[in-house]
Write a structure and sequence with these properties.
The protein has strands spanning 4-5, 17-19, 33-40, 44-50, 57-64, 73-79, 87-91, 101-108, 115-121, 147-154, 158-164, 171-178, 187-193, 201-205, 215-222, 229-235, 265-272, 276-282, 289-296, 305-311, 319-323, 333-340, 346-352. The chain is mostly beta strands.
Length: 357
């Protein structure tokens, strides 16, 4: 079944993303994050950490924008020392020089498995961790983020998509790539102007290099202005495309759940190797069903195995336990994801497949 993906809103405010897995955290400790302090084009980037754990070695990786730095070029191993707030500078690797945006990631080499990631514009303009946005601001009157679903497919020939909440008068590069890549670095098949924005249908040719594949990723990236993007994937066959019921982000709605704000997240509480994982949610919306999927580490569990459908009840903070599917047993790390079936909310994380705590 096809899945529908809603991206992060990537404003030019550089806000660090974060995660942790799998052991239960020390009660007084939260998670590390970092912001971008300054950049020297194609030379180096300086970051400022927050809440760095003590005496922990972190691998520092850089990669193409949109990859979260997963599988990127290792540029350093940094010892956190006394932890907390620190300013650190890293060289930009040769393979990424010339790119306009670069992802950067820190991963603990041992222990609980903390990580943090961010991205930066590869230019020498000054950056402040709490500054107002450097560069373009969202279009006047626009809020939220663009998404799209798959409307129709002609095998090895064409795919038709339907957009939702597209910003006005914005040029989008449309790319296709192998399933699981999120179409990052894929084949550019068109540049589409959003015109009046909102809900529109567009049809694109499937490039020769992807013909014959069973599943194909497709992506839209704004060429200028705020760096909006959206991605999805489709089965490369001519059978009718059903309305999504199992979705990476659900059949979209324009307005959020009444009375709800923010986004849902969850952390990993406990793991029984090759058997079960227990999670704790935060800010779960009320009365919402979530499809829970697991997949290979690094995939964000997109297209993963659905292990349960969970009702959020009164929402907020809850604990849930899920069985690890047979196809993922024996792996060292596993991605896990929750996707609402009726609203545009999702959350994901990953865990070490070892007994913890």
């Amino acid at each position: 079944m096809k899945r529908f993906a809603i991206p992060f809103i990537i404003l030019v405010i550089l806000v660090a993303a974060f995660g942790f897995a799998p052991q239960k955290l020390v009660e007084a400790y939260s998670y590390p994050t970092f912001s971008i302090v300054s950049v020297e084009t194609d030379v180096k980037v300086t970051i400022q950490t927050y809440n760095l754990p003590k005496d922990t070695d972190f691998r520092v990786l850089m990669g193409k924008y949109g990859t979260l730095g997963i599988g990127g070029t290792l540029v350093a191993t940094t010892a956190s020392g006394v932890g907390g707030v620190q300013t650190l500078t890293y060289d930009i690797p040769a393979a990424l020089k010339g790119l306009d945006r670069i992802a950067i990631r820190m991963e603990a080499t041992s222990g609980i498995g903390y990580y943090a990631y961010n991205w930066f514009w590869n230019n020498t303009a000054p950056v402040s961790p709490t500054a107002t946005p450097v560069g373009p601001t969202p279009p006047p009157g626009y809020s939220g983020y663009p998404t799209f679903s798959i409307s129709d497919v002609v095998a090895d020939s064409k795919v038709t998509i339907k957009t939702y909440n597209l910003p006005k008068n914005t040029d989008f590069r449309v790319l296709m790539g192998k399933y699981g890549t999120l179409a990052i670095g894929g084949t550019e098949v068109a540049t589409t102007n959003s015109g009046s924005g909102g809900t529109q249908s567009f049809t694109y040719d499937i490039p020769a290099g992807l013909k014959g594949l069973d599943r194909i990723a497709i992506r839209m990236e704004a060429k200028t202005g705020v760096a909006y993007f959206a991605y999805n994937w489709f089965w490369n066959n001519t059978s009718a495309v059903p309305v999504p019921t199992t979705v990476v982000s659900p059949t979209p709605v324009v307005t959020p759940i009444p009375g709800y704000s923010g986004i849902p997240t969850f952390s990993i509480l406990a793991v029984v190797r090759d058997s079960k994982v227990t999670i704790k949610t935060y800010n779960l919306p009320k009365d919402t069903d979530f499809k829970v999927s697991m997949g290979l580490y690094g995939t964000l569990a997109l297209g993963g195995t659905v292990v349960a459908t969970t009702g959020s009840g009164d929402g907020g903070s809850k604990e849930f336990t899920y069985d690890i599917p047979d196809g993922l047993k024996g792996l060292d790390r596993i991605a896990i994801r929750m996707d609402s079936t009726s609203s545009p909310y999702y959350a994901y994380n990953w865990f070490w497949n070892y007994n913890a705590p």
